[in-house]
Design a protein that fits this description.
The structure is a single chain. This protein has about 260 residues and is an alpha/beta fold. It contains eleven helices and ten strands. The strands form two sheets. The chain has a five-stranded parallel sheet with strand order 2-1-8-9-10, sandwiched between helices. Helix 10 links the parallel strand 9 and strand 10. The two termini are about 40 Å apart.
Length: about 260
Amino acid sequence: MTMRVTVESSAPPAPKAVVVTRAEKPDGPLSSALRGLGLEVLLWPAVSMQSANTPQLREAARSLQQFDWIVFASRQAVAAITAHALTRPPALRVAAVGQATAQVLKQRGWDVHLTPSEASAEALVAAFATEASVKGKRVLFPASSRALPTITAGLTQLGAQVTQVEAYRTEAAPLNLEDCRSWIARDAIGAVTFASPSAVVELERALGSPDFARLLEQSRAIAIGPTTARVLSERGRPAILAESTTLQGLALTTFRILQTRQ
């Protein structure tokens, strides 16, 4: 009597997708970096950036010679200022939060005099405290409509005269919530990337707290920097910090985390 032994092969589970919550197009830098690593990307832009283009912004951009320093915390702020001021006055010194913002400035022909090793507002203030005195200096800070007080308060405490102007508005972006909830219901998401605190706030607001909690219970939250990670922590959601505070660092960290889980 012959016995047949059947060996069943089980296919590996399908790789889970990665959510990009930053405001970018399908071929944006983070989405492209993730796809280049072989990951499936879901674009859920929880926020949108709109130039403020107010009289106060235009006046500040056209009066740069009145300031000793200008501080840029994002590429959106760079775009807002350089739309009205194509060149940097020779005496104006420039500080940038993060290498990505510094790189955009250099591409536009602006020298950068101060960039902290860590891309955070706290690190920028600390760099001013140790590397470049701003006591009595006039500082222009073109900021988001949702900018935290860290930079203005920190530089003021160091003795600077800070002028903060709204350079761009950070607003909620419409999402296809039916599609989002379908992915969550199927437990088909492996990681959610967050490049700003506003993205955390607006994704939770759009999905609602129950679905937001379910999403982050099923997947890993990857934060570009400590400020964004802190906003997640305040919501009881542990976050993994990107290996560097750049979009490339965010993509590489996400890839490595998913490689260990799948």
